[in-house]
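## tool: complex_structure
## caller: assistant
## args:
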Amino acid sequence: MKQKVGIGIDLGGTYIKYALGNQDGEILKEGKRPTDAQADSGRILEQISESIMDMVQFAHENKLSPSVVGIGTPGCVDVSKGMLKGSTPNFKSWKKVDIGLEIEKRVRIPAFIDNDANLMALAEARFGAARGHQNVICLTIGTGIGGGVIINGNLYRGSHYAGAELGHMSIKVNGLKCRCGGQGCLERYTSAPAMIAHYKKFQRGAGQNPGPEGITVKDIFNMFKSGDPYAAKTVEVSTYYLGRGIANLMNIFNPTRIVIGGGVADAGKVYLDKVSETAFAFAMENAKENVKIVKAKLGNKAGYIGAIALAFDQMNKSSEKVE
Ligand SMILES: [Zn+2]
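## result:
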């Protein structure tokens, strides 16, 4: 029998990554193009459609016919309507877009949409670092913190798709103000920009000029390894708060895997070890059983692998309804 294939799109502020794959999480072809994030939403829809048509062409050349499209986007998505509800921080006018409808109109293939962090969680739980686990928490740490919650093998999205915003869990009641309107959010202490801000703050606190210019999280971890005191403090603070946040998640959800992805997780073993140390020191005794905090496995492929998985899930669900 000819294999069933679908197309996955991972819309990011810098790149649109896309792939053709099957229901088993196998990727047959992939590609990427720079996102025109400052353009109007019509242009971004065009870019998504062009990416899809690239994959359709490859599929046809190989005598395959994609039956479904899945798209991950930042922001809050009404999955039942395929619609982006609010706005997204890295895009100029990507807000309140009827993505599913607009894409189906352009490419004539059924399209299903979800939040990008949800799709990464789905991919890691089904095909990646938490394969075989039913209750999984996924945190993607980069410019912000994305969260995904898998309960009994399914994504948990909340009543109006606004749930699982794990980066906006307050871990310090009188802490730093956050862009979400909250205060002391995890994101303000452990995201990449937060780590860089902390590093500079510690330098200033010691009477040093903050620098060097353009410092990255990778630099901070390298300096940490070579004994830089400000880097040591920065790593201490960010892993401590992340560990405290994860202890909360362990107590609330009692998962067996907590998957950490994104650029900050690439810092290596020392980072995860420190996070685990705090998480296990503060979680309740019964919530620690068989839990592991692990690094994401699918890297930057997780977005489109999850998108393809979502698309097949949703299509199978709607065909069940018809029968
Ligand atoms: Zn927040």
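## assistant note: The CA atoms of residues 220 and 228 lie 9 Å apart. Residues 133-297 form a domain with the Nucleotidyltransferase; domain 5 fold (CATH 3.30.420.40). Handing back to user.
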